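Quick question about two entries, pasted in order.
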Amino acid sequence: CGLSWFLSKYRTLGKFPDTWLGKIKLPDSFHSDARELCAQGEDALLTKFRSEVLIDDPNEVDRQLESGTCLRIEDHAALLDAIPAPQGPRATPKQMG
């Protein structure tokens, strides 16, 4: 999921309750943190996304791919007959704007 989806999700959810189904307390989590940050504004959510969702270390990307923690989903590119992006230097979060 990309940044626009992330921002849209928490704008849509707004100040959701601290319980599931009105009974079970929502634990402290990324989800509840994002809710609180959404109330602070888009910049706060952007910082959270960059620090906890994006992986900008190529070695960490490789490690997570090899261990199965993360996976690349590329079927949509093949379906759309898209040309894969060249594997060059990756943009840092600051460059991604």
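Here is the second entry:
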Amino acid sequence: SLRIIGISGELCSLSVQPAWRVAKLRCLVAQTFGFPAAELALLDDSKTELKDHSAVGERRQLTAVRLSPSAAEQKAMEDREFMGGLVLQRARKLASQEGRKIESST
């Protein structure tokens, strides 16, 4: 069981699987409280925001923080820019590797 706490204490307790991604948990918690998942951040014990691609793992407690719509929009834009940068970096690396393969086969 995973406890979700907020400023006022425990908000809910959910049965989760360790392999679940944080994105799935975030959607479930937001749905439970009736607001968009984009407006929910989940923090671990060190108050670090968990990334959507991370596994829930063996955590037993997370802190839920509701973001304003404008803060959620800003966060989504920053996440898209970050992911775009990662994709571009990966594409460049693959292109570089392909270039070396072509050179060595000629």
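Reply: The CA atoms of residues 16 and 33 lie 17 Å apart. The chain has a mean pLDDT of 88. Hope that helps.
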